[in-house]
Amino acid sequence: MKTVFIALGGNLGEVREHFIAARSDIDRLQNTSVSASSLLYRTPPVGPAGQPDYLNAVIRIQTDLDPLALLDALQQIENRYGRERLEHWGARTLDLDIIAIASDIITSERLVIPHPHMFDRQFVLQPLCDLAPQWQHPQLGESATHRLKQIIETGEAPLPEGEAW
């Protein structure tokens, strides 16, 4: 079993309910269990203008699924909750991104792990720090906490306080 971190995001429809249902769906995957959930954060959108704010969170799971099998399962869950891929970084009902699998490094056409943008996005780092503040990026050798602190020190406002979901 490997520890995997999955980022959840969404800004259309009943996002909180989609997160709760998706977390249950993930927990029911073969040889997979959700072991922790971060707080829930409301954040401004990244991407096309005019979108509503996002809700963001991270969950930690234990699984022995192959990374691509996990990716396929997560995309099926996204589709179940109305995910449409119409516009890059566009509004969405549910986004499930594998951000890290233990200390693995994967580079394939379909999957890059660690997620290539995770250390640039406070809306990923803050919820990750809720669960694993000392998680080390396997390529950068930097902890999630250290990187989050750097982002805030460069002038980006800290996220508003998170809430339980």
UniProtKB/TrEMBL annotation:
GO terms for biological process: folic acid biosynthetic process; tetrahydrofolate biosynthetic process. Keywords: ATP-binding, Folate biosynthesis, Kinase, Nucleotide-binding, Transferase. Its EC number is 2.7.6.3. The keyword rRNA-binding does not apply. Transmembrane segments: none annotated. InterPro entries: Hppk, Hppk_sf. Residues 88-99 form the 7,8-dihydro-6-hydroxymethylpterin-pyrophosphokinase domain. CDD domains: HPPK. Pathway: Cofactor biosynthesis; tetrahydrofolate biosynthesis; 2-amino-4-hydroxy-6-hydroxymethyl-7,8-dihydropteridine diphosphate from 7,8-dihydroneopterin triphosphate: step 4/4. One of its GO terms (molecular function) is 2-amino-4-hydroxy-6-hydroxymethyldihydropteridine diphosphokinase activity. Catalyzes the transfer of pyrophosphate from adenosine triphosphate (ATP) to 6-hydroxymethyl-7,8-dihydropterin, an enzymatic step in folate biosynthesis pathway. Belongs to the HPPK family. This is 2-amino-4-hydroxy-6-hydroxymethyldihydropteridine pyrophosphokinase.
